[in-house]
Amino acid sequence: MNKQVEEEAPESIRIEPEPEATYEYRFLKLTNGDDILCQVPAIQVMQEMLLVRYPLKVSTMFDPSSEEAIYLFTPWVPFTSQELITINKLTIVTYTTVRDMVKNIYEQKIESMKKQSLQAVSLPNHPSPVDPVIDPDVDEDAVPGPVKKPWLN
Questions:
Q1: Could you tell me which of 108, 104, 124 has the C-alpha nearest to residue 116?
Q2: Band of the pLDDT at 18, cuts 50, 70, 90?
Q3: Mean pLDDT for the stretch of residues 65-77
Q4: Is residue 71 pLDDT above 50, yes or no?
């Protein structure tokens, strides 16, 4: 799957995946507190930036009824068709491998997202300021409700 970065991106930051690149699964903790699950090329060519593929933000919720943690995986950079994203290495606090179980869950989520991206996506021209944001892969009961959109005020 070889996608080019949108045309408005300057030449200096255009990134395309290597067709035969080998990717490793990694968990990143960033200085802003974000937990990221992603694929990282085995060979990095940039010194100051880390190239990641299909980064997913990991959000943790606590289920009081079962007293267990629930992990939600959402696109780290929503509304982009880019497969590869760069992260400044100075913003990475933790960089680790992940267990096979986590790799499998990650792969399932990525495949689900790829299938969804093949479907036509239409964003309304004038959304309501309190439209709920619901991930179809998440149980609706786990979603806390409408999300306010202060940028529409």
A1: 108
A2: low
A3: 89
A4: yes
Q: For domain 11-118, give the CATH number.
A: 2.30.30.100
Phi-psi region of 33 (alpha: psi -120 to 50; beta: other; left: phi over 0): left
Tokens encoding 70: 């629930």
Quote the pLDDT of residue 128.
Answer: 47
pLDDT digits (tens, 9 = 90+) for 100-134: 999 999 999 999 888 876 654 555 554 544 444 45
Q: Measuring CA to CA, which residue among 3, 119, 122, 123 is closest to residue 54? A: 3
Evaluated on CA atoms 10, 12, 13, 18, the torsion sign reads: positive
The answer to whether residues 76 and 36 touch, using CB atoms and an 8 Å cutoff, is: yes
Label residue 67 left, alpha or beta by phi (over 0 means left) and psi (-120 to 50 means alpha): left
Q: Are strands 84-88 and 92-96 parallel, antiparallel or unpaired?
A: unpaired
The distance from CA 73 to its chain's CA centroid, rounded to whole angstroms, is 7
Q: Is the pLDDT of residue 7 over 80?
A: no
Q: Is 30:93 a contact under the CB 8 Å cutoff? A: yes
Q: State how far the Cα of 41 lies from the Cα of 100, in Å rounded to an integer.
A: 18
